[in-house]
Every structure is written in structure tokens, then in C-alpha cells.
Write a structure and sequence with these properties.
Blueprint: E1 2-3, E2 10-11, H1 19-25, E3 27-33, E4 45-49, E5 52-57, E6 62-67, E7 70-78, E8 81-82, E9 86-90, E10 95-102, H2 110-120, E11 126-130
Parallel strand pairs: 3-10
Antiparallel strand pairs: 1-2, 3-6, 4-5, 4-7, 7-8, 7-9, 10-11
The protein binds zinc ion (ZN).
Zinc ion binds at residues 4, 6-7, 9, 16-18, 21.
Length: 131
């Protein structure tokens, strides 16, 4: 017999007794972009949690993603480039702040030049971190 992870009620083998309990137990990731110049402004950042895309930041400054409590790997992705993953521990009802940024602020053409460097050092160009 399993017990609901949120309210403790017995369930028939499910982690949560109801959708409501599952949602209430979640934590929230608040992901914001670091203010930048024109470069990157119009491009989408996509947020991956445990390898699955959960949110994208278009022209907005921040977005949120709901995640189950526990440890997660969060990555940011832009075009060809992925950040190194950060590990976060999210508790029920908790709100974690993450920030995405870019180490390079060169014009578009630099991406072509920098691409080989990225192949050698993936995650070097884009970062995501807790704030
Ligand atoms: Zn429950």
C-alpha cells in the first residue's frame, strides 16, 4: 500500500492520491534572463529540466516551471548551445530563482567563429545558476 506523498492518504499504488495533491506538492523554478544588450534579445532561451523542455523565454524577462519535489538538473539552451546543467533541490512549495546569461556579447557572426570552441568546451558560452 502506498501513501500519498503530500497528504499521507492511502492510494492504490500512485505517488499522489489526487491531481490536486500532486500539483500542491510541486515547487517552482523562476528563471530570469540577465539584462543584456541587443544581442540575444530576440532569441529564445529554452529551459530543460532533466532533459525535457519545460519552458521557453521569448522576449519576456522571466518564466516559471513547476517541478516535482526532489533533485533536478536544469539546463538552458539557445540555438546550438546548451549550458552546463545545474543541480537544484526543490522542496514542496518552494520557489527557486535561477538566472540565465551568456558570456559572450558579440554580434551574430561570432557564433560561427566560436562554434569550434564550443565543441571543445560545451557549456562554456551559456550559463545558468542559482541566485
Ligand atoms: Zn493526497
Amino acid at each position: 500500500m502506498m501513501k500519498c506523498k503530500w497528504c499521507g492518504k492511502e492510494t492504490d499504488g500512485e505517488e499522489y492520491c489526487s491531481e490536486k495533491c500532486r500539483v500542491e506538492s510541486q515547487g517552482t523554478l523562476v528563471i530570469s534572463r540577465r539584462k543584456q544588450f541587443l544581442y540575444n534579445r530576440s532569441r529564445n532561451y529554452r529551459i530543460l529540466v532533466d532533459g525535457v523542455e519545460v519552458a521557453s523565454l521569448e522576449n519576456r524577462e522571466s518564466t516559471t516551471a513547476r517541478v516535482a519535489p526532489g533533485r533536478h538538473k536544469v539546463q538552458a539552451k539557445i540555438d546550438w548551445c546548451k549550458s552546463r546543467p545545474v543541480e537544484v533541490d526543490v522542496k514542496s512549495g518552494e520557489q527557486l530563482q535561477l538566472q540565465i546569461g551568456c558570456y559572450v556579447r558579440f554580434p551574430y557572426v561570432w557564433r560561427i567563429i566560436l562554434f569550434p570552441i564550443y565543441l571543445i568546451m560545451p557549456g562554456w558560452y551559456l550559463f545558468i545558476r542559482r541566485i
